[in-house]
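pipeline stage [seq->struct] | target=ATP synthase subunit c | organism=Microbacterium jejuense | residues=62
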Amino acid sequence: MGYGLAAIGPAIGVGIVVGKTIEGVARQPELAGRLQVLMWIGIAFTEALAFIGIATYFIFTS
């Protein structure tokens, strides 16, 4: 249950990152390549929060 709650934040974060990238590409189509790279970096950092959440779960339950 704890990890399920910890996964909500990264899920919302990834949704925001992808949504803003789509919005940026719609405004500036010529920057699609750069925005996509930045999107993947943002997703990686956001998913790091999920890994921290699962590590914290294992630390506190053992």
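stage status: PASS
auto-comment: The chain is about 90% helix and 0% strand. Residues 22 and 60 are 38 Å apart (CA to CA).
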